[in-house]
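haha ok so turns out i had the wrong file open the whole time. this is the CORRECT one, sorry everyone. sequence first:
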Amino acid sequence: MKDYKLAIVGATGVVGRMILKVLEEKHLPIASYVLFASKRSCGTKFPFMGKVYEVQELTENSFEEGFDFAIFSAGAKTAEKFAPIAASKGCIVVDNSSAFRMEENVPLVVPEVNREEIKKHKGIIANPNCSTIQAVVALKPLDEKYHIKRIVYSTYQAVSGAGLKGIVDLENGIHAFESKQDYSLQKFPYPIFNNCLPHIDVFLENSYTKEEEKMINETRKILKRPNLPITATAVRVPVLNSHSEAINVEFEKDFVLADLVSTLQNSPSIIVQDAIQHNLYPLANNATGHDEVFVGRIRRDYSVKSGVNLWVVADNIRKGAASNAVQIVEKLIEEKNF
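then structure:
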């Protein structure tokens, strides 16, 4: 078996650090790693795979030495500039940003949902938005069995999804409350401590946020349902990590609730926690540190002919970003699609 060479772009960020952690756990047949970041982070040292790696500055010449794969987690502008350069050198890029997700010839992949799309890559594969990933893991098996008619998303998204500055805003808010001192916000337009902000990413002309539009469009692309009616409200909540989602689904076909639950239980990467008599349901605290998607509060929606409510929780930094990207690389190695 060939030993491969992998670049991690954006290695010093919240997701980049989690990518390193997941790679250490996975033991993929990768012989050589190179860590890249901006000039500001150049020279930072990380213990990784039993060695100390020094972060290199990402430049237009970074991929001249030849890489098999690159995982990008450095934002859309960086990806737009450097991912095509990497791909032109024969490197397969898995990009965590929104830069290429809706490009027609770029696969948008969640391995448990549409692994077959990996084969269609032309050098770049897009990682979906974190909130979309956990949703479609739960929805795909239900769509196959009952054919989804409509989806209503309501998300409760952790501050880690906004990066390090989002985490700092929450932590500073907690400290300021305890000490009764003022503080400056680094990320959010209003304090996130003791608050909920119905505002993730920028507002668009149609009054939806970009985050809400991402969920709608990415779900349609991944499920191959371009005209599927979907609406979304995305809310930032004062939780450090792991996104929670209330998902209301209406189906074309009727269902027996016990069969629907069994379908979820027997689907990949899903853990059903739904024993309300014991107060058992998915929690952000329990999802953190795991790659599975947790589903509970499964109950019929009696306001429509064939509807169900789901509570879906997952670690947005692991499964919602780092682990999904590493899984794609793992599948590329397994299927030798390069």
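The chain has two domains: 4-127+321-335, 132-316.
again sry for the mixup
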